[in-house]
Each structure stands twice: as C-alpha cells, then as structure tokens.
Amino acid sequence: MTSKALTVPAVALGTWAWGDSGEAGDGYFGSQLSESGLREVVEKALSNGFTLWDTAVVYGMGRAETVLAQALTGHDRSEYQLSTKFTPQIAGDGDDPVADMLEQSLDRMGTDYVDLYWIHNPADVKRWTPRLIPLLKSGKIKHVGVSNHNMEEIALADRILGEAGFRVEAVQNHYSLLYRSSEHAGILDHCREHDVRFFSYMVLEQGALTGRYSPANPLPEGSSRAAVYNGILPQLQALTDRMSAIGEDRGASAADVATAWAIAKGTIPIIGVTKAGYIDGLVTARGIALAEEEIAELEALADAADVDTRGFWEHEM
C-alpha cells in the first residue's frame, strides 16, 4: 500500500543552521548566510547526487523551510527530496494539528507533498502517529519516520501505522562517535533487520568533531554550542588528532572521517551544509572505506574521552 521503498543518498543535507536570521548572535549557530551562497550550496549538492534536504518547522520557526524553498527554486521537484517534521511541542489546538503543521510546511516549501515526514519528538506516540495515516493515503506524505524515539516508541508507532498497511521507514536520532546510545539500545540492529533507514544527526557534534576546534581554538564564544562543547575540547583532542591522521592518508579532514564512520555503521548522516565547499568533504567522506581496526580504534578513543553530549531535548535511549 505504501509508495515505493524509501531510497536515499549516502548523506542527507541538514538545514538546522538555515533557520538563523543571519543577524549576529541570533539563532543557534550565528551563521552568516546569503541567498546566493545557499543557491550555490544547492547547485553543488544536486550535481554531486546529494538530493535529500532535511529541515523542520522549528528551525527558525519556518525560516529554514522558506529559505530552503528559495534556494531550490528553478529545480524540478523530481530532482530533490524534502524531509520535514511535525514537532508535538508546538502543535496548534485545531482539530488536526498534524495536518495543519504539514499544510504550513507545504506552503512554505511551495510543494504539494513531502518525501519523508517525521514525528520529531515522542510526546505521545498513541496520540500523534494515527494522524499520519490519512496524510499517507492522500499522498501528501510519501514516507514516515520518527525522530528521538526509543525502541519501545518506534515499535508502537510501527504497530499503529501497520494496522493501516504502512510502517515506520526511517529513524532519526542523535548518533556520533561521542554519543552511541541508539547503537547500545539495539535501535541500529533493529533498523538493519527491518530495512529501516537510520539517519544520524549531530555526527560532527556541532563542529566539535571537525578537528577545527581545540582548547587553543575554541568554538565561537557566545554561541549556544560553545557553552556545550568548549569545556570538553581537552578530552576530545586525542580522538580528533587520530581522525585527522586517518584522514591525512586519504586526503580527507577529521570531519570527513567522522562522516565516513557514520556511513560505515550503516547510517545516513545528516550533515549541516552552509557553504558550497562543504560538499567536497561529503564527496570525500562518501568515498572513504574505513577498516574495521580504524573504526574500533576511533570508538575506543571516543569512549576514553568519556563525555556526555546528549541534547537537552533527548531522553535516554
């Protein structure tokens, strides 16, 4: 009954930072983004086969969706995939808050369907999941995913959709070398066994795993991510040094190695792209095959760093 199986590129492109207004100190990343710069990102991404754009209403309260649609202008809808989210925490009080939020997203993005629609946070699985069924039947959403859900919640959502002949086809959780709770909880295994795509977000831990930052060169002061990560940069040094060394032999950066690790684990990393140059790194990462010893070594160094980067919005897996 569902439309054809969900096929996705090796890496998905994230637009969390696209919700920043570009004003200094505004938004999560304090990004300076221009319309022409983002169009350049889109052109380069699409020409390299990166066709899936992941966004959400809560990224700048609609701004990221609007800006993404502007950047995609001129491309045929069949050339790219859109992934956006219903966030229960900001649900309206109409008769059907899920359909309402989706309509607003479709409107902002100038399209009549979303390839992948997520329930963003697991506020009340029984309450929100059934609301997706009529939207699947109407074709307004092609595939359903759940984000930040634990194993029990994923199974419940799957059961509810299953009664109507649909299923959870994707899971999106925070997953990185520093934060492997979805793996420890058996969610990655579950996804592998049931042909569910696992999308990993915060693979680079908002820049802390790019190798660009160190105790001597911390994340930009005053940004939310500086508050979270600058204090743990000393513990990450051994790991990021090793990532840089592994990358060096392959003409890759530490960030590319972190991305290649997430791909090697069978996940689809969602990487935030704000500059066209970032696409080169994704092309590199896509081509890296890490040896099992390298994966084990990176994970051992990450475990030894002994940091907890769970986001304030996440519950334990």
TrEMBL record:
SUPFAM superfamilies: NAD(P)-linked oxidoreductase
Recorded GO CC terms: cytoplasm
GO MF, any single term: oxidoreductase activity
Pfam families to which the protein is assigned, alphabetical: Aldo_ket_red (PF00248)
UniProt keywords, alphabetically: Oxidoreductase
NADP-dependent oxidoreductase domain location: 11-302
Highest taxon of the lineage: Bacteria
InterPro entries: AKR, Aldo-Keto_reductase, NAD(P)_OxRdtase_dom_sf, NADP_OxRdtase_dom
Protein name: Aldo/keto reductase
Species per Swiss-Prot/TrEMBL record: Phytoactinopolyspora halotolerans
